[in-house]
Amino acid sequence: MLAFYREENKVICGIDEAGRGCIAGPVVAAAVILPDDFSHPLLNDSKKLSEEQRNLLRPLIESAAIAFGVGIVDNQIVDEINILQATYRAMHLATDRLKVLPDLLLIDGNRFRPYKNIAHKTIIKGDGKYMQIAAASVLAKTYRDEMMERLHLEFPAYNWQKNKGYPTLAHRAVVKELGSCRYHRQTFQLLKPEQLTIF
User: Fold this and answer.
1) What is the CATH classification number for the domain harbouring 139?
2) What is the C-alpha separation between 114 and 55, in angstroms, rounded?
3) Could you tell me if residue 40 is inside a domain?
4) Torsion of CA 72, 45, 67, 124, to 10 degrees
5) pLDDT, tens digit, for every residue of 19-33?
6) Residue 117 resides in a domain
7) What is the pLDDT of residues 110-141, one digit of tens each?
8) Domain extent at residue 24
9) HEC string of the chain?
């Protein structure tokens, strides 16, 4: 069971992202404020959960949350401002959408760009330590997966329904054969050096 992060008389918000390592699609962040009595035995880092478990948890988190928000930054903005800045922007957008102002932001990872005047704390592998960050992890992952499944209908050859835009061997093989599309991140290494054809 994960820990519940507490500080006396403070409203705590967990924040996490999904899609930083992808070569296609948006980066998505979620911000979640959970009530003090929230717990669920399945809740964990979304990467350690099955798709079925994540989809089970999402409505439970959303209905129980005091507030939650989701921020989305598309691949074109990722290319314009770089993935780190795009991640910060997605996290800020998610925080903007909260109906309750938190006192402290708990960020998964080791870097963050301060948001307004709200205190923040970065926690490496926080999505596997604290419920608030794990809940944000689940929302970010499920919202992004849904988006990639919709984009798959537009460009089925890349099989985003399965790989969700991550650089799998199969995904890169299709990029090598067909080229990239408008949802690919052109500033990312779409092909590994050994896959590049040199004329």
Assistant:
1) 3.30.420.10
2) 31
3) yes
4) -80
5) 999 999 999 999 999
6) yes
7) 999 999 999 999 999 999 999 999 999 999 99
8) 12-151
9) CCECCCCCCCCEEEEEEECCCCCECCEEEEEEECCCCCCCCCCCCHHHCCHHHHHHHHHHHHHHCCEEEEEEECHHHHHHHCHHHHHHHHHHHHHHCCCCCCCEEEEECCCCCCECCEEEEEECCHHHCEHHHHHHHHHHHHHHHHHHHHHHHHCHHHCHHHHCCCCCHHHHHHHHHHCCCCCECCCCCCCCHHHCCCC
Asked if residue 179 is part of any domain, the answer here is no
Q: Which pTM does this prediction carry?
A: 0.94
Beginning with the edge strand found earlier in the chain, give each strand of the sheet holding 12-18 in spatial order. Answer: 67-73, 27-33, 12-18, 104-108, 119-123
Q: Is 177 inside any structural domain?
A: no
